Amino acid sequence: MENHTKILQDLHGRAHAYLRISLIERCNLRCTYCMPEQGVKLSPKSHLMTYEEIFKIAKTFVDNGVTKIRLTGGEPLIRKDFPVILEKLATLPVELSITSNAVIIDKFIAVLKANGVKKINVSLDSLDENKFKHITRRHEFKKVYNNILLLIKEGFTVKLNAVLIKNFNDNEIIDFINLTKNHPISVRFIEFMPFDGNKWDISKMVSYANVMACVNQTFSKNRVLRLQDAPNDTSKNYKIEGYKGSFAIISSVTNPFCDSCNRLRLTANGQLKNCLFSAEESDLLTTLRAGKSIEPIINKAVKAKFKVRGGMNTVKKLQEPKRHTNNRSMITIGG
């Protein structure tokens, strides 16, 4: 086995200790920024990783230095063997977490606790029931909101991820922040990012500067506290003095965090993506099924990682449609 510092360290000195694994391409919501209106072409079932293959690939990464694994989708909880996958991965010396839309998460509280999952990210883009229906194309707001409260009650560390879109939910920034007054949660505002089929336009984006301008118009400067960001954090973290929770901004477009990125992504059909913005993929599953080592492929993919956003090192490049329409839709990458 090669030394993990060689396999998981790129040419810019970044060591990758965080693997996000997408378990499924399907979802029980249809969020407009994630899934194209016409849907997506799903991989045949035979092309998806089995739970044994997920474990084998994950173990290879953990053996080479990965210390954190997040399970994503689609919606990971709709995969029928989710409990089995979680139980297998829980045998590895790694921190396990999950990203979910929380529609059915109440059914999984026990299995999550039994396998050491403590941190849960929930996607919630509006606190308005009608807006929620518009963006998700489903009537599930009350169930999601009640499940968020349940997760807090059950002692999970909960982060709410809200993708901000101008003239749609940007008038809810303060409502989201006020949610942290009495609840120990972190609300994270995410800049709208370009993916295939989501009709991205930079004019729809609410930037880090826009969010902070809104915050500073509402709260006095001395009440807005800048928090210490964790190592390799994707977000810039704040809280309002006296509030139980906090808020943050993930500014992938206007102020990317690429210098400290330690993340790799594994799609549900076994493709390794070294960057969320990159269209390039490396096929691990075919090699695994052929009985060969996947370490050389991992090593090559990590070494090929661009310094910034898959090579889109300026906002101008990011606005060139051909650079992101060749990428997957977000639902088939993994949230």
Question: Keywords for this structure?
Answer:
12-stranded mixed beta sheet; 335 residues; 13 helices; alpha/beta; single chain; 12 strands
Uncertain segments of ≥5 residues (pLDDT<50)? none
Largest sheet: 12 strands, mixed
Radius of gyration, whole Å = 19 Å
Helix content: 25-40%
Cα(first) to Cα(last) distance is 30 Å
| Mean of all residue-level pLDDT scores | 88
* Global structural class: alpha/beta
List the secondary-structure elements in sequence, H or E: HEHEHEHEHHEHEHEEEEEEHHHHH
Number of strands: 12
Give the count of helical stretches. Answer: 13
Proportion of beta-strand residues: 15-25%
**Outline, from the CA principal axes?**
globular
List the topology elements.
Blueprint: H1 4-7, E1 18-22, H2 51-63, E2 68-72, H3 82-89, E3 95-100, H4 109-114, E4 119-123, H5 129-136, H6 141-153, E5 157-164, H7 173-179, E6 186-191, H8 208-218, E7 224-226, E8 236-240, E9 246-250, E10 263-266, E11 271-273, E12 282-283, H9 285-289, H10 295-303, H11 315-318, H12 321-325, H13 330-333
Helix pairs in contact: 2-3
